[in-house]
Amino acid sequence: MSRTALRICPLCEATCGLTLTIEGTRVTGARGDREDVFSNGFICPKGASFGAVDGDPDRLRAPLVRRDGELREATWAEAFDAVAAGIRPVLERDGPHAVGVVLGNPNVHTMAGALYPPVLLAGLGTRSLFTASTVDQMPKHVSSGLLFGDAGAIPVPDLDHTDHLLLIGANPLESNGSLCTAPDFPGKLKALRARGGTLTVIDPRRTRTARLADRHIAIRPGTDALLLAAMAHVLFEEGLVQLGELSAQVQGVDELRDAVGEFTPEAVAAACDVDAALVRTLARELAAAPTAAVYGRIGSCTVPYGTLASWLVDVLNILTGNLDRPGGALFPQAATDRTPGPPVPAGASRSGAGTPA
User: Fold this and answer.
1) Across all residues in the chain, what is the average pLDDT?
2) In whole angstroms, how far apart are CA 61 and each of 26, 80, 90, 131, 333?
3) Deepest of 165, 175, 199, 350, by most Cβ within 10 A of its Cβ?
4) Buried-state track 337-346, b at ≥16 Cβ within 10 A, e below 16
5) How far is 113 from 244, CA to CA, in rounded Å?
6) Quick check: 157 pLDDT over 80?
7) DSSP 290
8) Banded pLDDT at 350 (limits 50, 70, 90)
9) pLDDT in tens, 68-83
């Protein structure tokens, strides 16, 4: 006999509502919960495949412990004993940093995932921490740490109220977003256009999100930093910088003007494969919008100069007065109400995974 269960999708931060069909202990169907007040029935491909993931014959259903060179199923007690027996000699022989910890979805999207790993990491004393973030968004954490003093302080666009949204290397119609993750992200983009707002997508590929946009700019891969620097140049050159309420907090504006002085639209056009006139139009439209937000994602992070591109995303939000205001890019409040963390000490050490460019 089948039954229906209402659940929250645990596969990313959006926490979309799920309506699951369950037969015995098997999930046989998954669709969006149309009555969920946040996601309004939307789920991304990850959520739609929830049943297949749950019933995958290769899914691990018990801990595996290596015995005689082979991984074999074990009880949790046996697994924890194996961990304790293995970690202690490593710590004593090679020190705490020889122990690597990997955190990822969906563990980090739970309250327990936010509360308990810090206790484990503090006990181990290791800096060898790897997560889903180190794969696809570490440049953003580095730039936020250097710019705002907290690697976790990442402003995200106010999707429900912005008048002008500039997406760089993001395809939320298929991924449902990341860093900025919102229930029913596609619905929010459609609502933006329905209320007369503008959506511009910068992406080498013509993605589903790009097809929805008012304008799609097929930039040459890896040149995001050049384009963003040229837009900042235009804001200074044409007197379009408007810090607004940020004036008292922002430092280094003159140094920034000098830093982007050589990055004219004409100088970067060939490298970016974007016409100089279009670069100027992008900057002017961003400055002229009543409210606006620039949002960069994996396409602008996992490229050369990804940290610089991530920093310039926030620079444009700052120069147009759109940082930390309704309709612009806002700092979200964590559910666990954590205190600000430290900036990322870029260059202080190097792991086997390397450091972001």
Assistant:
1) 89
2) 14, 16, 28, 22, 35
3) 165
4) eeeeeebbeb
5) 38
6) yes
7) S
8) low
9) 999 999 999 999 999 9
Instruction: Give the Cα separation of 262 and 268 in Å (integer).
Output: 9
Kindly give, in sequence order, each residue whose CB lies less than 8 Å from that of residue 352, ignoring residues fewer than 6 positions away: none
Rounded Cα gap, residues 148 and 140, in angstroms: 11
Q: How far apart are CA 218 and CA 282, in angstroms?
A: 14
E-only strand ranges, 97-157: 101-103, 129-131, 156-157
Say which amino acid occupies 263: F
Q: Could you tell me what percentage of the chain is helix, strand and coil, using 3-state DSSP and rounding each to the nearest 5?
A: 40, 15, 40
| Neighbouring C-beta atoms of residue 269, cutoff 10 Å | 18
Residue 342 CA, chain-centre distance (Å), reads: 19
Quote the CA–CA distance of 243 and 248 in Å, as a whole number. 9
The C-alpha atoms of residue 297 and residue 180 are separated, in whole angstroms, by: 9
- Measured CA to CA, the distance from residue 316 to residue 42 in angstroms comes to 31
pTM for the model stands at: 0.85
